[in-house]
Amino acid sequence: MPEAANANFANNLEAFWMPFTANRQFKANPRMFVGAKDMHYTTADGRQILDGTAGLWCVNAGHGRPRIVKAVQDQVAEMDYAPAFQMGHPKAFELAARLSALMPQGLDHVFFTNSGSESVDTALKIALAYQRAIGQGTRTRLIGRERGYHGVGFGGISVGGIVKNRAVFGPLLAGTDHIRHTHDPARNAFTRDEPEHGAELADDLERLVALHDASTIAAVIVEPVAGSTGVLIPPKGYLKRLREICDRHGILLIFDEVITGFGRLGRGFATEYFDVVPDLMTTAKGLTNATVPMGAVMASKTIYDAFMDGPENMIELFHGYTYSGHPVAAAAGLATLDEYKEEGLFERADELAPYWADGIHSLKGAPHVIDLRNLGLIGGIELESIPGKPTARAFDAFLRCYDAGVLIRTTGDIIALSPPLIISKGQIDQIIDTIGTVLKEVA
C-alpha cells in the first residue's frame, strides 16, 4: 500500500504487537513515554513520571546520562558495525577486560550477547559443551528452579519456572527439571533483607541427583535474587549450600545476574554480596544502562581453557550472534562502567539500602499487603489477590500509580520496585507515599 494511503502512521497502534502487555487494554488507553532524563520519564501529555523500576530493572545509572550518550554518538560516527566472527574491534576487548576485572577471581572470560535471554541460552549451551569437552558427555540435564525467570528463549523458559511463560509453548527442551523455590511466607513474611529460614531448601538438588543421577546433570541455574517472579530473597546460607552441593557432584552452577548485576544490591554483583562464586554468570540490562541492547556471559578460566584444544585454525565453540560485541553497545558499556565508578553508584546504592528498606517496610499494615521483601535497592510488595481475579488488584495499583506520577512494575499480585541507583531519599519517599495512598484506593 502506498504510504500516502495511510499517512498517519504515528497514531496507528495496531501494527505493534507489544510484549508482555495487555494489548487491547493498552491500545484503548495508551500510556506513551516520549522522553526520559535522570529519574523521570516524560509522557505524551507532558507529565513527569518518577521511574521506580529503572525502566525494566535496567537503567541503573538513570536516564540520558551525558557521558553515555556522547560515547554512543561518537561510536556511531566512527564505526557503526564490525563483525565478531573471525574479526574484532578494540572496544569489545577493552570492555571484556574491564568486566573481568569486576569479577571475583576465576570469572575472567566474557562471551557477548544482546540480551539476558540470549545470555541464558549461551550459558546453557556452554555448560553442555563444556561437560562434553571434559569427557562428561552423559551430563545433558539442565536444572532450573520453580518460579525462576531466565528470559524467553526456549532454553530460558525450559529451565525457568513461571507457569504462564511456559504453558502454551509445547514440551520445551527435553531433560530439564526444577528444584523448589525459596518463597516461604509462613516463616519469613515481612523479613528485612535475607530471610532466616530456608537454607535447607538447597538440599532439594540432592533429590534430583538421587532421581536422575549426578552423571546426567550438566548445570543448575538460579537467580541469586529472583526478580521477575516477585522479588524472592534467598535465605541465609542457601546459595553457599547450593554451591557446595554442585561441587560435590561435579555440577556447574550458573548465576543469572541479569537483574542483580551492576549495583542493584549495593555491590557490583550478587556473587560479591553473597560471597558465592558461580562457574558461569549471565548479565545484560545494567551492562549498558539499557542505552543499547547488550548481554554477556562470564565464564571461568577452567571452562574457557577446556575448549582451547585441537588445531588452532578450528572454531572452538560453534555459537554466537551477528551483534556479539557490537561496537556501539561496547562503547555504551565502557561509558556505563565509567559512570558507575566515577559517580560511586554501587556505593550509593549500599548507603541508601537501609533507608529504602525502612520505606518498604513502612507499608506493613497498609490495605491488602500480605508480605514485604527487600534487598539492596529491590523491593517487593505482595498483595492479597481478589478471589477469582488474580493480578487484578496489582494491575489497578499500577494504573493508579501511573496516574499519580510514579512508575511501578507488577508481576501477578506483587508490586516489584527497582529504581535507578541515582534516586534520592525524597524520591524514595515519593514512591512509598504514592503506593501507600493508592493501596487505600484499590478495591
UniProtKB/TrEMBL annotation:
UniProt-listed Pfam families: Aminotran_3
Entry's Gene Ontology molecular function annotations: transaminase activity
Superkingdom of the organism of origin: Bacteria
PROSITE patterns per record: AA_TRANSFER_CLASS_3
UniProtKB keywords: Aminotransferase, Pyridoxal phosphate, Transferase
Listed Gene3D superfamilies: Aspartate Aminotransferase, domain 1, Type I PLP-dependent aspartate aminotransferase-like (Major domain)
InterPro entries linked: Aminotrans_3, Aminotrans_3_PPA_site, PyrdxlP-dep_Trfase, PyrdxlP-dep_Trfase_major, PyrdxlP-dep_Trfase_small
Cofactor(s) in the UniProt record: pyridoxal 5'-phosphate
Record keyword Aminoacyl-tRNA synthetase present: no
Membership in a protein family: Belongs to the class-III pyridoxal-phosphate-dependent aminotransferase family.
Matching PANTHER family: ADENOSYLMETHIONINE-8-AMINO-7-OXONONANOATE AMINOTRANSFERASE, BETA-ALANINE--PYRUVATE AMINOTRANSFERASE
Protein name: Aspartate aminotransferase family protein
Organism: Marinibaculum pumilum
